[in-house]
């Protein structure tokens, strides 16, 4: 028999006939068993470690930690089942103790009721917020209906605006879908000329043809490559994201107002202005890289 207490008190002498590597492993296993037992809150100091965790012959312990856990908790279950039980000793509470317990129970009940009331109030607020969201959705629906009525009745003269846009020679109409998606394409390739003598910069890049897309129902604007474009890291323009959305900068408020008023003439003027200019302080991709890609392609 070799209890855990005897093993540690004897400096693991029971493993002394093993080679040093195996002896170190056995000591590590004993440490692991102690750790698991301690975490389980179990006192195993008087257990016969070799009997419970041995391989069956000699003093060698099993090293599979899953099997160690299985044996340890199995032994704990066995010990618990055979432990003597005794009837609980009845207790007698003093009047003061009984009063204290009643007070604590009342306070606990009051706390639970307060939490339930808080949950009810929160649920009521959530319901009110959802109703408000429903009302706002209705407002948006009526606004969409208003735009529809404008387009189909006496609203902004979209056709007249398109005629003026085409007359400038900068855009040509591609299509107008049934759901109000207006698509136009530049008549000429977009070229950006940028010079900064102080930096010794002189750039001229032909970026190709672009499409301007305006959704009349919600004012969404996208600028997309059409053909003959120079692409760098999925970008076709220094100020346009790969998904076609644009960094408008100071022009954002003018664009928002124009979209709200269905002023598509102003929208496409803003698009062509953005396409033809370069702001070195806020590009997604620098114009120099587009010129390098253009030269690489021999454009």
Explain this structure:
By secondary structure, this protein is an alpha+beta fold. It folds into 2 domains: 4-82, no CATH class; 158-297. It is 50% helix and 14% strand. Strands 1, 2, 3, 4 and 5 form a 5-stranded antiparallel sheet that branches. β1 and β2 (181-186) form a beta hairpin. The longest helix is centred in the middle third of the chain and has 58 residues, at 95-152.
Brief sketch in words of this structure:
The protein is of the alpha+beta class and 299 residues long.
How does the helix and strand content classify structurally? alpha+beta
Gyration radius over CA: 40 Å
Fraction in beta strands: 5-15%
- Mean pLDDT across the residues is 85
Cα distance spanning the termini: 89 Å
* Helical residue percent band: 40-55%
Low-confidence stretches: none
Tell me the major beta sheet.
Answer: 5 strands, antiparallel
The succession of helices and strands, N to C, reads HHHHHHEEEEEHHH
Number of helices: 9
Q: How many structural domains in the coordinates? A: 2
Shape annotation:
elongated
């Amino acid at each position: 028999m070799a209890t855990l207490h005897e093993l540690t008190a004897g400096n693991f002498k029971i493993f002394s006939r093993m080679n040093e590597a195996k002896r170190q492993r056995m000591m590590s296993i004993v440490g692991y068993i102690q750790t698991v037992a301690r975490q389980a809150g179990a006192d195993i100091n008087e257990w016969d470690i070799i009997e419970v965790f041995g391989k069956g012959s000699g003093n060698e312990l099993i090293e599979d930690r899953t099997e160690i856990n299985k044996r340890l908790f199995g032994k704990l279950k066995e010990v618990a089942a055979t432990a003597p039980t005794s009837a609980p000793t009845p207790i007698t509470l003093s009047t003061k103790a009984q009063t204290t317990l009643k007070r604590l129970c009342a306070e606990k009940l009051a706390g639970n009721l307060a939490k339930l009331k808080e949950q009810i109030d929160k649920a009521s607020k959530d319901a009110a917020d959802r109703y408000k969201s429903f009302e706002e959705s209705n407002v948006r629906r009526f606004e969409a209906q208003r735009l529809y009525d404008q387009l189909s009745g006496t609203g902004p003269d979209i056709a007249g605006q398109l005629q003026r846009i085409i007359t400038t020679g900068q855009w040509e109409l591609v299509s107008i879908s049934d759901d109000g998606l207006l698509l136009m394409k530049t008549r000429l390739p977009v070229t950006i000329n940028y010079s900064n003598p102080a930096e010794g910069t002189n750039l001229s890049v032909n970026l190709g043809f672009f499409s301007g897309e305006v959704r009349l129902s919600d004012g969404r604007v996208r600028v997309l490559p059409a053909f003959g474009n120079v692409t760098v890291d999925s970008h076709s323009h220094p100020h346009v994201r790969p998904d076609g959305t644009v960094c408008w900068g100071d022009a954002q408020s003018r664009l928002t107002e124009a979209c709200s008023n269905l002023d598509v003439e102003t929208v496409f003027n803003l698009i062509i202005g953005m396409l033809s200019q370069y702001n070195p302080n806020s590009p997604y991709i620098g114009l120099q890289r587009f010129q390098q890609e253009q030269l690489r392609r021999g454009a």
